[in-house]
């Protein structure tokens, strides 16, 4: 399983998304787009969005902290 979180350190929804993944034992790659111009391009190409967070879960793009979409994609029951 591949999970990437495109985020910035000052984004509260990014923090919530990463906390949610950690609470459910999901390993993820945290990509700080505030420091990585290449990552900004990658995120925009995948999502069409400049806002964060953007989650890439096995190639499925979830924009924002959409708890239900994340749970569905990761098959989290609770």
CATH architecture: 3-Layer(aba) Sandwich
CATH class: Alpha Beta
Q: How many E-type strands?
A: 4
- Uncertain residue ranges: none
Rg, Å, rounded? 11 Å
The CA-CA distance between the termini, in Å, is 19 Å
Biggest pleated-sheet summary: 4 strands, mixed
Into which percentage range does the β-strand content fall?
15-25%
Assigned CATH superfamily: Glutaredoxin
Lateral arrangement of strands in the main beta sheet? 2-1-3-4
Structural class: alpha+beta
Shape: globular
Q: Element order, helices and strands?
A: EHEHEEH
Q: What is the count of distinct domains?
A: 1
Helix content: 25-40%
- Quick check: average pLDDT? 96
Task: Give the number of helices.
Answer: 3
Output the CATH topology.
Glutaredoxin
Element layout with pairings:
Elements: E1 3-7, H1 12-23, E2 29-32, H2 37-47, E3 54-57, E4 60-63, H3 67-74
Parallel strand pairs: 1-2
Antiparallel strand pairs: 1-3, 3-4
Descriptive notes:
This protein has 78 residues and is α+β, with helices and mostly antiparallel strands. The protein has one domain: Glutaredoxin (3-Layer(aba) Sandwich), CATH 3.40.30. It contains three helices and four strands, in the order E-H-E-H-E-E-H. It has helices at 12-23, 37-47, 67-74, and strands at 3-7, 29-32, 54-57, 60-63. It has a four-stranded mixed sheet with strand order 2-1-3-4, with helices on both faces. A hairpin with a 2-residue loop joins strand 3 (54-57) and strand 4. It is globular and about 35 Å long. 23% of the residues are buried. The model has no long low-confidence stretch (mean pLDDT 96).
């Amino acid at each position: 399983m591949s999970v990437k979180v495109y985020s910035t350190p000052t984004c509260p929804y990014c923090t919530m998304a990463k906390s949610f993944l950690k609470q459910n034992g999901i390993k993820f790659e945290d990509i700080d787009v505030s420091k990585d111009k290449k990552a900004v391009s990658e995120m925009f190409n995948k999502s069409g969005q400049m806002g964060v967070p953007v989650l890439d879960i096995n190639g499925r793009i979830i924009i924002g902290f959409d708890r239900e979409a994340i749970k569905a994609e990761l098959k989290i029951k609770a």
